[in-house]
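Weekly modeling sync, notes
Attendees: S.R. (lead), two postdocs, one rotation student

Agenda item 3: backlog of single-chain predictions. S.R. asked that every request posted to the team notebook include the full sequence so nobody has to chase files. The rotation student volunteered to paste the first one in as an example of the format we agreed on. Action items at the bottom.

Example entry:
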Amino acid sequence: MFGIVDYGAFVVAFIILLFIPGPGNLAIITSTTKGGLKGGLAATLGLMAGDQVLMWLAVAGVAAVLAAYPTAFHAVQWLGAAYLAWLGFQMLVAKPGAAPIINIKPHHYFQQALTITVLNPKAIVFYMAFFPLFIDPLQHLGMVTFGVMALTVAVLAFIYCFAVVLLTHFLAERLRANPVISNTLQKLAGIFLIGFGVKLALSR
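Predicted structure, as returned to the notebook:
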């Protein structure tokens, strides 16, 4: 179908990628908690943009480059791990009432989510290694195939992220009035980000 080996399997694989707990999910939740619906939607667009960047880089042949030069992939792993750990540390040491680590301005949420996605090894592995497996070299339709895959990724990501944003916003409205809970959640988010960073650094 459209030069894709198994379109159904591709859809399922990407849905599973979305549901796996990781920095992307945490970015959506944190952005919504801090910036409301606007922050969550901005982060959603950032994640979607990051997905598209990784997918089209794979199309351009980055997968082959990383396969030939594994050191490049390790460098990306370290960069992503360092960024996530730094962000988590900033959230962990932030004092109650201090300015939020993630700025409440929507364009900051977009940039933050975009950076987290592009530097997330989980997403990189999916696009640079797993994603090419769904392209049928015999029935490949060029830009049509890539366009269908890109559109599928965008639609699924938006549906999932928007659902997370709405759920988080609904809960956040009831937690915002309690600064102790809000601060505790921020500390936990920081710990998780540091944990992601350490795990990614050790997974070389």
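Discussion: group reviewed the output briefly. The chain has a mean pLDDT of 75.
Action items: rotation student to repeat for the remaining queue; S.R. to check formatting next week.
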